[in-house]
Write a structure and sequence with these properties.
By secondary structure, the protein is α/β, with parallel strands linked by helices. The protein contains ten helices and eight strands. The chain has two domains: about 220 residues, Spore Coat Polysaccharide Biosynthesis Protein SpsA, Chain A (Alpha-Beta Complex); about 70 residues. It has an eight-stranded mixed beta sheet with strand order 7-5-6-4-1-2-3-8, sandwiched between helices. Strand 1, helix 1 and strand 2 form a beta-alpha-beta unit. It is elongated, with a radius of gyration of 25 Å.
Length: about 325
């Protein structure tokens, strides 16, 4: 029986956390009693510098429930760093770790399928949404467009997969070797390799609280994903520059021919529009290049991605 750890990043989740712990505890007990998980299995909640009572709730439950563990980060480091810290802590104690969100949108009833595929030899099992009918039209269309864009840019990403996945010990050890500061786990995990499989599920509505990913954060996350795994935008800029140079040469030849034929007409509007267009295009290109330079700047400093302030993992009374 594998030792299974549930890794749950949390940021200001005091409204939903008690119910999340209750449901995950029942699921873990069910897995243990059915022989699918070892009694040493645990739930590991990562407090990503929450400003509410998230850590107090985790600490209180850990005192009365041996299966509840916690990791407290010294400050808010973002969802991806919080998730990574939990996975790296769990890998020292488990055979496999299942990452999921605290808002109960990920269907925990399919966890049995995750473990079944792991015991069959899969090192990574992705939780994939079977449909997006519950999403708004805007969210559904933008999400689907984003996945298609990532694929077209050459990024190996699992369609309709977020961070609901199982990773075995070997995969976790491999993940630890990726040291980039600009984390995008949805792009990193497929690079690891090993045997993989998929579990399809229907995503639920958030049980309580508010989404921690408003439009602004979603856009930033999307841009980080593209610029962390593809240099295609830089190639597009190069090709665009070549095309504009070619068009400029054609325009220059046309202007010379018009001048010598005596049909040249001064066009203030067209000149201004051309200047504005090229100026805006240059600013856009500089911005894209600047994004990549900024990422290089972050990477070369090699600052720690997170710092753990406290860790709570209780052992069985009989010892491990």
């Amino acid at each position: 029986m594998p030792i299974v750890y549930f890794v749950v990043p949390c940021y200001n989740e005091e409204e939903v956390l008690p119910e999340t712990i209750k449901r995950l505890n029942l699921k873990l007990q069910e897995l243990i009693s059915s022989g699918k998980a070892d009694i040493k299995s645990r739930m590991l909640f990562v407090d990503d510098g929450s400003k509410d009572k998230t850590w107090e709730i985790i600490s209180a439950f850990s005192e009365t429930n041996i299966y509840v563990g916690g990791v407290k980060l010294s400050r808010n480091r973002g969802h991806q760093n919080a998730l990574l810290s939990g996975l790296m802590t769990a890998k020292e104690h488990c055979d496999c770790a299942i990452s999921l969100d605290a808002d109960l949108q990920d269907d925990i009833n399919v966890i049995d399928e995750f473990i079944d595929k792991y015991t069959d030899g899969c090192e990574i099992v992705y939780g994939v949404r079977s449909s997006r009918e519950k999403d708004t039209f805007f969210k559904r269309s933008t999400a689907q467009s984003y996945y298609k864009l990532m694929k077209s840019l050459g990024v190996d990403i699992v369609y309709n997969h977020a961070d609901y996945r199982l990773m075995g010990k070997n995969a976790l050890d491999a993940l630890a070797e990726y040291s980039e500061v600009n984390l995008f786990l949805r792009g990193i995990v497929p690079l690891i390799g090993y045997r993989t499989d998929y579990v399809y599920y229907e995503r639920n509505e958030r049980f309580a609280g508010e989404s921690k990913y408003p439009l602004k954060k979603m856009l930033k996350f999307a841009i980080d994903g593209i610029t962390s795994f593809s240099v295609q935008p830089l190639k597009i800029i190069s090709n665009l520059g070549i095309m504009i140079c070619f068009l400029s040469i054609i325009g220059f030849i046309y202007a010379l021919v018009s001048f010598f034929m005596g049909s040249a007409v001064s066009g203030w509007a067209s000149t201004i529009c051309s200047i504005w267009f090229l100026g805006g295009l240059q600013m856009l290109c500089i911005g894209i290049v600047g994004t990549y330079v900024g990422k290089i700047y972050s990477e070369v400093k090699h600052r720690p991605r997170y710092r753990i302030e406290k860790t709570i993992i209780r052992q069985n009374s009989k010892g491990d």
